[in-house]
Write a sequence for this structure.
């Protein structure tokens, strides 16, 4: 009886490790962005099959990309305090079985999108997966520019949703892409500043590592956040949203910019954390405002 209980506990532990490999909490925002793109493209929410398959396919591809990333970076992750207890660097999961799991997730998600939604959504999801796992992840060890490159796959989920709804990519899809792309840079730079010692220990040439005074980090955070402000208003100018969205997005963007400027001025960990948490709140709130103000 005791052996059975121990075996059940071990099985549950392994299952939770595989779940952690897919980073489900982190990928909630990915799925939300894909769903926002679907709604903003005029997708039919009453078509339960397409909606569920868009969400499931996106979630599986995102989970697969996260798992590939953790396998590739397992040695670096073992050197960082914030990542050393992940399943692969901690030895709870082996690289090969993790690769099999990552492949199964990614292929499953792509298959769902291609067969139950449309081929274009699957192609955009494949581009997201490859640019993240094949381009961005290896580049992280070579250049601080990887932060900008990594923002490309991170900005593609709303494009997946748009493609799922229209089976075409029009101007609106690229506006949503630009919003998420620009949002990610102050978000990532705040994280890099908070964990700059960890990144240095693992050998990642992040901007706060190669320029430790933080001036370049601060300038870039402000630049991208300032660029985000007018781009976030573009949906109204394109006729996708109403004036109420324009006003709300303007206020939200100014608050986000003010927090970025504060971080740029002080370059302290507390202000970096405030910017980070503000960024987490900003994007979901912007999606809510956009959907509520859809024209």
């Amino acid at each position: 009886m005791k052996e059975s209980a121990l075996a059940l506990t071990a099985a549950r532990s392994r299952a939770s490790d595989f779940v952690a490999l897919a980073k489900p909490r982190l990928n909630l925002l990915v799925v939300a962005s894909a769903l926002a793109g679907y709604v903003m493209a005029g997708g039919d929410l009453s078509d339960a099959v397409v909606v569920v398959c868009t969400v499931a396919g996106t979630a599986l591809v995102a989970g697969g990309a996260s798992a590939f990333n953790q396998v590739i970076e397992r040695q670096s992750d073992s050197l960082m305090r914030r990542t050393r207890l992940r399943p692969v660097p901690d030895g709870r999961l082996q690289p090969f079985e993790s690769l099999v799991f990552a492949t199964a997730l990614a292929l499953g998600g792509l298959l769902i999108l291609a067969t139950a939604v449309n081929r274009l959504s699957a192609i955009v999801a494949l581009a997201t997966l490859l640019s993240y796992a094949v381009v961005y992840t290896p580049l992280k060890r070579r250049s601080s520019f990887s932060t900008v490159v990594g923002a490309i796959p991170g900005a593609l989920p709303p494009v997946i949703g748009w493609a799922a709804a229209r089976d075409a990519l029009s101007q609106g899809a690229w506006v949503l892409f630009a919003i998420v792309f620009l949002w990610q840079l102050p978000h990532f730079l705040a994280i890099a500043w908070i964990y700059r010692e960890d990144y240095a220990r693992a050998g990642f040439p992040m901007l706060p590592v190669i320029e430790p005074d933080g001036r370049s980090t601060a300038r870039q955070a402000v630049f991208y956040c300032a660029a985000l402000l007018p781009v976030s208003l573009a949906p109204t100018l394109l006729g996708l949203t109403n004036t109420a969205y324009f006003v709300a997005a303007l206020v939200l963007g100014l608050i986000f910019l003010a927090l970025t400027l504060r971080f740029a001025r002080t370059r302290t960990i507390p202000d970096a954390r405030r910017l980070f948490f503000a960024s987490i709140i900003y994007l979901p709130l912007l999606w809510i405002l956009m959907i509520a103000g859809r024209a």
